[in-house]
Amino acid sequence: MHRSAAAALIVACGLLAVVRGEEGAAAAPGDLIPTTVAGFAGYTAYSDVDQHARVDRDIRSLEKAGDDWDAAKTIYEEGLHSTKSSGEKRTLKSFSTKWASTAVASEQSEPLVRLSHEFWGRGDYADAHILAALDGRDLEGYGMYGSGKLAKQAAARKQMVKKVVKFSAVWLYALHEVESAVAKYKDESLGDARFGADGAAHALDEGWVFYAGSLEHGSQEDGEADDSGKGYAPYVLAEKRAPAFKTDGYVLGNGGTSRVNLELLYQFTAMQRLLRTAGNEAQVEQSLKCIRAQFKIPVIQACLLYSHKASSPDLTDDDSLAKIKAEAWAFCSQALPLLHEVDPASAAAVKKTVMLDASDARPDWAIVRDAFSGENVNGMGLKCSDVGALDDGVYQCRDTASLLSQNSYADSAVCGSVRMPNNPSSAAGTASSWIVVGLAAVLSVLGTH
């Protein structure tokens, strides 16, 4: 679908302007400015997840700590802005260490948790990686942050900390909450409680706010003032990478333009409604497959983009190489388990060429580009058009018809089969209904719903 067709729907989405600010609470003295669109980046929660959403403020504080490694580590391990119902602080560290526990064996079988565990050989791989970068330690297979020519530089270590936190640890945990929502919905032992505000929909709400955060306005426009709609949660990656891969131009009522975030906002809204009444198992499963697929796209795009940028001195000079290669390695570290599932040899080759080892070598772009072939992208449950094209021919895969829609747990092709159900109650508020009107109009014209 040409971008102009989506852009023409700005009139429909313009109706959403009336809800901006209606649900935002006044900031406390010294606090950060909250989201200025309805709910959380356009999503209206059915349950109370305000404290969950505030974990993005820890990410912001972590980034602002810069190379004050002790301060950054304290924020990471002890928490700051987000409080659990028990009164304890929610920590960014716990988003990864959860997967190291033998008590969560059933959750470790969740598809993307399983893939990550299989590739890295440990469930808390993100925590291990973050701590190595924070401490400036060499960690075999992860990075030489104590002795590597590039890896030991503060510019590289800072990128590894903030990006592995956001796009590995929090990214995976947000998806886990969606998996948890579906599991609760299917658990008949919970009775009708699974359809209430503390049931399956609550877990889904947690998933969205971990993905979007409390500060996200919905866009990442140039010149956007810090703390005034600029997000710090995984949501930002789809918005930032969309222009380079030409997967932007899909105007959301919340200000975003990413095709991925448009689809995710629609799917989360639809699933929330489906989870609140019985008998929707088939639709819920289709929505889950779509969400899993959409989550993969931004990390693949970012792995490709930064590997390409780091590969040539014409694109990145020697003085900036530590930062840019670190970004490539941070993004690829989460894309590699997805690649390993369909092509272990290519995953090993990409890891070898992109990892922050002891050297100052640049990534071999041909290795990375060829690894994300149409065959491999299709095997992940994606179409090549989902990933998009980078810089008019630098990267563009071609679908292999025999492998389209062959992934058992993730499939972008089923996204269009999920229809927006009626709102089971008015408890979620009127603002979300305008969001849905805009989303439904956009996706209808795009031909996906």
What structural class results from the helix and strand content? mainly alpha
Alpha-carbon Rg, integer: 21 Å
Fraction of helical residues: 40-55%
- The CA-CA distance between the termini, in Å, is 13 Å
Low-confidence stretches: 1-36, 426-434
Give a quick account of the main beta sheet: strands, pairing sense, barrel closure: 2 strands, antiparallel
Give the number of domains. Answer: 1
User: What's the total helix number?
Assistant: 20
Number of strands: 2
Coarse morphology: globular
Query: Would you tell me the overall average pLDDT?
Result: 86
> What oligomeric arrangement do these chains adopt?
single chain
Order of helices and strands: HHHHHHHHHEEHHHHHHHHHHH
Portion of residues in beta strands equals under 5%
Main sheet: strand order = 1-2
Describe it.
This protein has one domain. The two termini are 13 Å apart. A two-stranded antiparallel ribbon has the order 1-2. It contains 20 helices and two strands. 52% of the residues lie in helices and 1% in strands. The longest helix has 33 residues, at 154-186. Residues 1-36 and 426-434 have low confidence and may be disordered. It has 449 residues and is mainly α. The protein is globular and about 60 Å long.
Entry summary:
With 449 residues, the protein is an all-alpha fold.
Key descriptive features of the protein:
disordered N terminus; globular; two-stranded antiparallel sheet; 1% strand; mainly alpha; 2 strands; 449 residues
